[in-house]
Amino acid sequence: MISLQPERHPWSVAVQRLRLDPREVRSTVAEIRDLLTARGRSASMWSVGSSALPSDLPDRLQALGMVPEDGPGEAAMVLVRPPEPHPPASFVVRLAETADEYRVAADVMIEAFGFDPSDAAEARAQAESRFERSRASAHTRLALVWEDDVPIATGRVTFTPWGLFLGGGGTLPRARARGAFGALIPAAWREAVRRGTPALVTWARRDTSEPILARLGFEEVATIRQLRDDLGTGAGA
């Protein structure tokens, strides 16, 4: 599966759910590269889960020029019961209901993830149109965590028939280690139950969010390796 977001940074192009015939890995990679190049994209991120095929797919992709992202890797985690009690705090969590709140969430994400200036400018320019698309589709929303009327954390919520997928969670550096990230989970769980789909699914970095999610009751179900494909250099490998 290939998904494209309006922005132009590598994370706006995701290649996932990889089940490839070992004899067709090279040709499939070439086909995807051609497809993305024709759409003006210069890089993509490949998410290779522990159930991907063939089993040595990460090594094959690296041999074709892809580069593993730095860091300890990620885990796919699932919550299918109410989260463990969260320490009380003065946080308010709600979905972005207006274009202004969506822009605020985008600003939090920009600072939390340290976007470079060009990516930040693009995210701000796209904020209003992305809000309109999300409101029209009712498929994906941004959540905001407020403390004393100040936005300090955000996360993306995708609604599916099987549960809520949580992604893109980030907290402002000055507000970290106070429970803002964890405050998103009970709010997401309540929304999942309200929709009749009591399950939360997310990806977690092993060195940051995984310990928090484990304490809240999430269980690991798969490992994920992220590989970046810079089309200007990898395509000719």
In short:
The protein is an alpha+beta fold and 237 residues long.
What would your notes on this structure say?
By secondary structure, the chain is α+β, with helices and mostly antiparallel strands. The protein folds into two domains: 2-71 and 226-234, no CATH class; 81-198, Aminopeptidase (3-Layer(aba) Sandwich), CATH 3.40.630. It is built from seven helices and eleven strands. Strands 1, 2, 3, 4, 5, 6, 7, 8, 9, 10 and 11 form an eleven-stranded mixed β-sheet that branches. The longest helix is centred in the middle third of the chain and has 21 residues, at 117-137. The protein is globular and about 55 Å long. The two termini are 22 Å apart.
Q: Count of helices?
A: 7
Mean pLDDT: 87
Categorize the overall geometry. globular
Helix content: 25-40%
Largest sheet: 11 strands, mixed
Low-pLDDT regions: 233-237
Number of strands: 11
The topology string of helices and strands comes to EEHEHEEEHHEEEHEHEH
Radius of gyration, in Å, reads 18 Å
Strand residues, percent? 25-35%
From the helix content, strand content and strand pairing, which structural class follows? Answer: alpha+beta
In CATH, the architecture of the largest domain is 3-Layer(aba) Sandwich
Write down the domain tally.
Answer: 2
Distance between the termini: 22 Å
* CATH topology annotation of the largest domain: Aminopeptidase
CATH hierarchy, class of the largest domain: Alpha Beta
CATH superfamily of the largest domain: Gcn5-related N-acetyltransferase (GNAT)
